[in-house]
Amino acid sequence: xxxxxxxxITSFPWREKFESYAVGVxxxxxxxxxxxxxxxxxxxxxTEDQSHGNNNTKKLKLPNTTENxxxxxxxxxxxxxxxxxxxxxxxxxxxxxASNNQxxxxxxxxxxxAIEGATELGFLPRIPNQSGGQYVSAEADDGWYTYFFPLxxxxxxxxxxGENDGDHSVFLFLDNFVVKQRVFVTENQIVNSNPGTGxxxxxxxxQHVNSGHHFTNSTITLMEDITLGIHAMAGTxxxxxxxxxxxxxxxxxxxxxxxxxxxxxxxxxxxxxxxxKDGTYTLSVDVESVEMTYLHLIDNMTGADIDLLSSLRSxxxxxxxxxxxxxxxxSRFKLVFAQGESANEDNFAFMRNNHLLVLGIxxxxxxxxxxxxxxxxxxxxxxxxxxxxxxxxxxxxxxxxINGDEVKTQKIVIK
Length: 415
What we know:
Layout: E1 14-16, E2 24-25, E3 32-35, E4 44-46, E5 59-62, E6 71-75, E7 86-95, E8 103-110, E9 119-125, E10 143-150, E11 157-164, E12 172-186, E13 199-201, H1 202-210, E14 219-222, E15 226-228, E16 244-246, E17 252-257, H2 258-261, E18 266-271, E19 279-288, E20 292-299, E21 305-307, H3 308-315, E22 319-324, E23 333-339, E24 349-352, E25 355-358, E26 364-370, E27 376-383, E28 386-389, E29 395-403, E30 406-414
Parallel strand pairs: 12-13, 12-14, 14-16, 15-17, 17-19
Antiparallel strand pairs: 1-12, 2-4, 3-6, 4-5, 5-12, 6-11, 7-10, 7-12, 8-9, 8-11, 18-23, 19-22, 20-21, 20-23, 24-25, 25-28, 26-27, 26-29, 29-30
C-alpha cells in the first residue's frame, strides 16, 4: 500500500493515541500498513482487553502471526525534526506470556520510509523476560511498559516491523506513540542555555523550570551525579517540573547548606520527582554545615511524614524509599525544616503554612493551647518534635510546654 502524500509533521511533541480511528484493519492516510511476507496480517485498531493490561481503550494491535517468518510493517507519518536538539520516539507496549521465540516489533528510523538502509533502534519482545537492546530492558512481570528510542539526525520516518521467529500464535498491543524532545542535563559543563536546543547545566535547567518552563513534554536525562543546595532546586509549588526525569544511573544529592538557608530559619522546599519507569526509588538528603532541629520529608501523595533526623539517628542516613509510577504527579514531595537557631531558649514553636512546628523537644512533654482569657483549649502529650495542622480561628494564643519540671510559655499568632 502506497503512503499518501501528506505534509510532514513539524510541531512537537507529536502524539498518537488511536482513539479517533475505526476498529478494524488500520488503513489511514499518511500511514503505510502492509505485509512483508505473503499471508502476514496487518496492524489493526482494537478495543479488546482479554485480560491483557485492563486497557479497553482503542490501541494498535499486531494480530496473530502463527507461522515462522511472518512479517508486516507500519510506517508512521513523515516527520521533519528541528536541526538542533535531540528527539526521541516513545511507545507503550503490553508484554506478556512466555516462550523462547523472538516475537514482537522491531523499531527503525529511516530517512526515506524504507527498512533497507534504516537504523534499527531496538526490538520490543512480547515476552517480558527478554531484552530488546540498549533501550528495551527485560521485565519481571506481564504488563504495560513504556520505552523511548533516541532518533538519529535526519530521521524522516519511524517504521515498526512486526515479526514472528517461531510457530506460536502471537498478538501484541501498542499504544501512546510520541515524538518529543529529549533534554540532557550536566552539572558543570555549560553547553547551551536555551531549553529548546537540547543541553544545559543543572543550574540553567533549574532556572528555566522556576521561571515557568515546566518541560511538560520533554525527558530530562541526567549525565552525571549532581550536588545541589536549596538555591539550585528545580521547581516550586507554582512552577513545578512536569516532564519525565531519567536518572540514567546517576544520583542527586539534595544538600541543605547554611548559605542556602540564609536568615530564614524555618521553611519549606519542594522536591519535584517524576519516575521514568514504575518501581521503587529512594530519596536521600544531606545536611551540610548547618544544625537542624527539625527536618521532615512530606509525601504529598501518601500523606507520609518522615522524620529525617530520627532516621539519621537510627539508620545513619536520611533516606526515604517509596513506590512510584510514571503517572504520579511531579510535585509529590516537600522538605519542612528549621535551623538550630530557631529553637532557642525563648521560642519552641513556629507557624508555617497553617502548621504548628514544636521543636527542641526530647522525650515526652505536654503541650497546652490557652486563649487570652486563660482557658485551656487543648492539652495533649507529644513525643519529640512535632508538626500539627492548625484549624483554630485566627487570633493570639499562648502555648504552654511542660517537660518534666521545666515549663515554657510562648505567644503564637494564627492568621
